[in-house]
Design a protein that fits this description.
By secondary structure, the chain is an alpha/beta fold. The chain has 13 helices and 12 strands. It is globular and about 55 Å long. The two termini are 28 Å apart. Bound molecules: alpha-D-ribofuranose (RIB) and calcium ion.
Amino acid sequence: MTKTTTSLVIDTDTASDDAVAIMMAARVPHVTVRAITTVAGNVPIELATRNALVTLELCAVAAPVYVGAARPLVRALETAQNVHGEDGMSGVAFAEPTMSVESVSAPEALVRIARDEPGRHTLVTLGPLTNVAAALLIEPGLLSAFTSVVIMGGAFDGVGNVNRCGEFNIWADPEAAAAVVDASGPKLFVGWDMSRRHAVVTVAEAAGLRRQGPIGEFAVAINRCVGDFARAETGLDGFDLPDPLAMAVAIDRSVAIEVRAANIVIGTDDVCRGATLVDMRPVAVADAPNAEVVTVADENRFKSMLMAACGGV
Ligand code: RIB
Ligand code: CA
């Protein structure tokens, strides 16, 4: 039986883990990249866009890149350069990309793809949801035009990575995240809890990735800063790859072993900024679900996809 092709639209604040996710999308068979939309988050928009172009060129994949929001909807931009390095890629030297970006903005591109090509693509978001929220203002039915919407975001065990309760993608632009959870259409969240539990690359596994060749070397080298941060701040036994885990779910839904429907409210005040508050009451009294959350992921399947994507030339 021929494997169906998965076509992806990837919204990204491209830093080191986003880059590995893009690399997976570029190198997994039966997956095509329809478009990349960039958003400020990990790094300012210029670097997020440059890093996306560098990654596409390294993987010898051509896809239109649309530049998006340079700051959150209503807040000032606060980056995660303390985690990913000043350039988002641990300072690894790259030739400047030769590919150019499209003239249409990222939100406009999301709207056009949704309206002109309904039911053909999966939307994967790997950064703050600013572009998606802006696109929803133009096209409220945006999410329903995608076959699925996989969102790397949230801290569903209540453990944040920016403050006590906020995961960065949600925390960086909580108003945008609130607009997305309130919108109609499919939303499958892959939270930082899943990354900490199922997507930590140990020293031995990193050595295995590097042995796959230049792409594996790239994946490990650009995540050096994340590894330093993880060991020092979050106490993980290696560097975790939240965006590649979300990408794996988007490419192969069976990576999401357990999924639960949930009503999510986003914290937007100072105390709860970025919290993904799930209504855990009995179904009879809980608010109606507005999303799905991955609660168990297949680590072995994810890591074999990652290893395969790092292989070859
Ligand atoms: O909290 C992890 C998320 O924040 C990932 O998408 C990482 O790239 C950063 O954007
Ligand atoms: Ca990201």
